[in-house]
Amino acid sequence: MFHSYGFRKFKNKLFFVLCLLCVVIAVVPLLSILYEVIARGAPQINLEFLTANGLQGGIGPAIQGTLILIGLTSIMGIPLGVLSGIYLAEYGNNKYASWMRTINDILTEFPSIVVGITAYSIIVVGLIGTFSPIAGAIALSFMLVPIVARTTEESIKLVPNSVREASMALGAHRWRTIFSVVLPSAKNGMITGTLLAVARVAGETAPILLTIMGNSYFFQGMNQPMDALPLRIFLNSRQPSAELQAEAWGAALILILMVLVLNIGVRLASRGRLRR
Amino acid sequence: MKTMYTVAAAIVAIVIIIGGVFAYTALQTPAATPTPTPSTNPTQTPTSSPSASPSVSPTSSAPVTLNGAGATFPQPFLNATIVHYTTNIKPSVQINYQGVGSGQGVSSFTSKTVDFACSDAPLTATQREAAPNALHIPETIGAITVAYNLPGVSSELKLTGEIIANIYLGTITNWNDPAIAAINSGVTLPDHAITTVHRSDNSGTTNWFTKYLCLVSSAWDNDVGSGTSVQWPGGLGAAGNANVAATISQTQYSVGYIELAYALQNGVPVAAIQNAAGNFVLPSLESTTAAAQSLPSSGLPSGSESWENVVLLNTSGEQAYPIVTPTYMLLYQELNVIPGMTLDKATQLVQYVWYVVHDGQALAPALEYASLPANLVALNEETLNSITFNGQHLTTH
Questions:
Q1: B170: CB partners within 8 A, 6+ apart
Q2: Which of the 8 DSSP states describes residue B281?
Q3: Of chain B residues 168-227, which have a CB less than 8 A from chain A?
């Protein structure tokens, strides 16, 4: 009886419903967060809110600061991460590389507040002597490099050895093989990994709270405090004034949009190239 | 090869974006500074400062930037003073204050990464050792309210310090306890267990609230004590004033302590508390000011001494609210210890603080802060006049 056709069909349906339920459970929190942020953030958004400085009730300095931070962090972190990833994947058959891999894995799971305190005590207090966008970018690079290195290594490992051998057989040097054959094949994985890392870093609060401090004014120089969106959200959400809390909701919406645009934009671009 | 071009193009694009942002800023900064903000203009503040006329700094070089960080509590007030000061009085100055919390404010002050800091708690002996020659400047005064959530009770609740201590100790567990009922005749108290809410993070608010409980209850003093975080006998924890306020609004039959501004902004009902004179007083600007006015001017320390023992709790005024705390600005007595400090910057800093404790106080009541009483203002004048840069006294006003 348990092997009857009807029962098997029922089992199939039951399992389907359970799967569907799991999806709904997983998606509900995400949707409710999105709904809450849009419902509370959207009424805040207008041109003045996006361009005015902090004292005039805008988040212009925060948007500008986040863009500068993403730029500085990418310039510092992505080349280092990609090069480490290439080293680990292509020359990583010795004990130094395995140590490096272990350290890299530990760094990936490092609590971000520890990174912030380290950057604060070494760079802010020790080297620069003041809060600085550079200190913030270095702290964020600490978080970016291990993720980029790991995803680069994994993507490169997926490239079949026969492709490398073919390139070498045609007389290419090892570096030429890596740059012209291996990297283009691993490109998609690398881009995705790097973007995820940048998006994650763009939303980090703890490392920048202790390194760039926040600023009501637009960028004032490399040796002055700077603002950033996650920091603005964190600081304003703790204020008694309902106005400042509403600004935090607006800033949250902008941050989510920025990360989303970053993700979708480059994913579309890389998919287009893949087809060709 | 195409990938190489793409990567190169991506890097160039990033560089261009950043370059553009920098260029935009460079063009923006000089233009943006003198732009007056139309909003938040106070109602005719008495301009005793002669430099209020537009003849300010004819050869204004790069604008002077002052950076401060610290307590969240005074930020709305400080922001209002900054807007007014940089718009109407000194357009050549930019002042950046960030409410990162008292703790981080003090550590930034100690490591001299900011020009001034704000803290709800005065520096402890250890902190004073780490930051020699630090000056305390009381800038405004706040009250800590006991807020509650009692569905069905619309009339105002009265509490004494001892009852609050016993509620937090767990010896009073129900809202209709005889001790509460005795002083709230005419109020139908529900037969429900009390949920207490307290701060889970290190907090200046907790410090003053527990100090008050120690003053009024020997049991609390013996069993729990006071500090920025204590071993709570029970109840719910929440991080930050805003979250405590939210927890109280969401939890029926709960009680907790929050700064007055947060209670007013969130519309949470607050209890009238019995003061030293025996009156039940609701927290308000007037009752907070009354508490500050009853400070004995003779007994106050000077700005360079320890303020740890200055307590505004349970002061003797008839209408004084019992849980009142000053909040401090911290400055160095000799400003050349801060890297990058110049005579011009030091003068601007002292003049701004002078403005905050004088004309700036006129902005306080509209924002639900109590103005400084005259005795504290006089003390602050003395403190500010003692500040030097390279041994040279500064023009304070």
A1: B233, B234
A2: E
A3: none
Contact A31, A21 (CB under 8 A): no
- pTM here? 0.78
DSSP per-residue letters across chain A:
-TTSHHHHHHHHHHHHHHHHHHHHHHHHHHHHHHHHHHHHHGGG-SHHHHHS-GGGT--HHHHHHHHHHHHHHHHHHHHHHHHHHHHHHHS--SHHHHHHHHHHHHHHT--HHHHHHHHIIIIIIIIISS--HHHHHHHHHHHHHHHHHHHHHHHHHTS-HHHHHHHHHTT--HHHHIIIIIHHHHHHHHHHHHHHHHHHHHT--HHHHTTTB--SSS---TTS-B--HHHHHHHHHT-S-HHHHHHHHHHHHHHHHHHHHHHHHHHHHHHHHHH-
- 3-class secondary structure for B188-237? CCCCCECEEEEECCCCHHHHHHHHHHHHHCHHHHHHCCCCCCCCCCCCEE
A273·B339 Cβ contact <8 A: no
| CA–CA distance, B239 with B46 (Å, rounded to integer) | 40
Interface of B with A in 245-264 (CB under 8 A): 259, 261-262, 264
Q: Look at the block and give the residue holding tokens 């006071």.
A: B226
Domain boundaries, chain A: 64-214+222-227+259-275
Cα(first)–Cα(last) distance of chain B, in Å? 67
Q: How far apart are CA A153 and CA B290, in angstroms?
A: 68
B33, B96, B243, B336: best mutation site toward chain A, by most A Cβ within 10 Å? B96
Residue B1 has pLDDT above 70, yes or no: no
The reply to whether residue B6 touches residue A273, judged by beta carbons under 8 angstroms, is yes
Sign of the alpha-carbon dihedral angle for B216, B219, B225, B229: negative
- Give residue B375's pLDDT: 82
Contact B105, B220 (CB under 8 A): no
Is A209's Cβ below 8 Å from some Cβ in B?
A: yes
Closest CA to A238 of B76, B346, B332: B76
Distant-in-sequence, close-in-space partners of B296: CB < 8 Å, separation ≥ 6: none
ipTM > 0.85 (yes/no): no
Contacts of A71 in chain B (CB under 8 A): 14-15, 17-18, 21
Position B137 scores a pLDDT of 92
- DSSP labels for A227-266? --HHHHHHHHHT-S-HHHHHHHHHHHHHHHHHHHHHHHHH
Q: Which two tokens stand for residue B301?
A: 């320390």
Count of other CB atoms within 10 angstroms of residue A26: 9
Q: Which residues of chain A register pLDDT less than 70?
A: 1-2, 269-276
pLDDT of residue B5: 63
pLDDT tens sequence across B12-28: 676 666 666 655 555 55
How many residues are present in chain A?
Answer: 276
A216–B contact, CB cutoff 8 A: yes
Confidence class of residue B44 from pLDDT cuts 50, 70 and 90?
A: very low
CATH homologous superfamily, domain A64-214+222-227+259-275: MetI-like (1.10.3720.10)
User: How far, CA to CA in Å, does B311 sit from each of B18, B220, B244, B267?
Assistant: 51, 18, 24, 28
Within B99-201, where are the H helices?
102-110, 125-130, 161-169, 178-183
Chain B hits for A55, Cβ within 8 Å: 37, 79, 82-83, 86
